Amino acid sequence: MKWRAFIGGIISGIIMSVFLxxxxxLTHLRVYTLLLNVDYIPLLKRVTSNEP
Length: 52
What we know:
single chain; mainly alpha; 0% strand
């Protein structure tokens, strides 16, 4: 049962990121940046990531 919640979270995260990326491309607003903002997690501040 825990795996269903995990897989559901992964799938919903992917759908949300694709949606926000589409909005960003259509409107040129920085809505996708909010999804990638991890400044509130001290350890993740140091990690750099590239979007695929």
